[in-house]
Amino acid sequence: MNFSYTSEQQAFRAEVRTWLEAHVPRERLASFDTREGFEQHRVWERQLFEARLSMVMWPESLGGRGCDLVEWLIFEEEYWRADAPMRVNQNGQFLLGPTLMQFGTEAQKQRFLPRIASSQDVWAQAWSENGAGSDLAAIRAKAVRDGDHFIINGQKIWSSRALFADWIFGIFRSDPLSDRHHGLSYVLVPLAARGISVRPIKGLNGLDSFAEIFFDEVKVSVDNLIGIEGQGWQLAMATAGFERSLLLRSPGRYLRTAEKLVQLYRRHHDRADGDPLLREAVLQAWMDAEAYNLAAYHTVGKTLRGEQPGFEASANKIFWSELDLRMHETALRILGERGELLPAAPAAGDVDNWLEGFLFAQAGTIYAGTNEIQRNIIAERMLGLPKA
């Protein structure tokens, strides 16, 4: 494997770095789990789009830049290195977008993808229901065909950013007599549609991080059906694959977190050196982040050669979610009692956002398919072990 960059790739890195240094907000944006923060992030996304840096791998005709996977990794490394804002439209950009690229009609691609790239439309995911979380095939919310429309009734829950988003994508039971993963359809729904109500659910940080969505005779055009009616399960699994893959959790994010962890350790070495296990944890985190980065380049190399990554998405998901949790736990151990303070607290000092990151990392082993489910997939489909 060749780890050197071409002159074009080096020029691209320089361009991205220069732009980010000039445009990343000096003050951290408010959380996008607030109305104010949500709109601030939408403005940031618009700036990225106007600089052709929103969705660098998408075709230019759909609002992208036409970069390849290596250039995307370069962009991500620079993005996180610059401490640029979190992407408020990641559901639309990294989950729905690739799904539309693969399964959408040409008209649907032209209709939705440029608006996703520019964040004119910000999307939320509507998978889970009460009784249908890890067991997604237990979905009961219905989308029954009535001429040129679906009539949707039911409830979704644990939908990130649905309180402020414009659209949702979800799977609904379009065949009322079906069960499990049969008879489901993948439908796009505007949250402003008549009959929809959205209620906030507070997360561990006290903000409205999630929402539950209620559908009461909601009428949606069949033009919003993605793929074939009744085959929504296959599309949902494709979306879940994108959620577990590199696209949503690029290695640049963890390289930057590991770098900040090392910096934190050095600032507190007088205290931290007294605990050899803490020093070992920092070193291990740095090595794991580097290993994830190298593994990503290996996967990208295979993809560029036309090979299929296989079930590596499940292994990736377990690795990044548990690495993220370990790094934040280690940071809080270094900070000691101050690790429980928010950055705005009077004695916060350099606590940064480690506590907020730690709380968010708790969910990493659950969303995108729990790590227990991913281990079952690896055992049964990758290693060929018998079902328990």
Tell me what the structure shows.
By secondary structure, the chain is an alpha+beta fold. It has 12 helices and 8 strands. The chain is globular and about 70 Å long. The model has no long low-confidence stretch (mean pLDDT 92).
Number of helices: 12
Structural class: alpha+beta
SSE topology string: HHHHHEEEEEEEEHHHHHHH
Strand line-up of the largest beta sheet: 1-4-5-8
Largest β-sheet summary: 4 strands, mixed
The percent of residues in helical segments reads 40-55%
Strand content: 5-15%
Whole-angstrom Rg? 21 Å
N→C terminal distance? 38 Å
| Tally of DSSP β-strands | 8
Average pLDDT for all residues: 92
What is the 3D form?
Answer: globular
List its traits.
alpha+beta, 12 helices, four-stranded mixed β-sheet, four-stranded antiparallel β-sheet, 388 residues
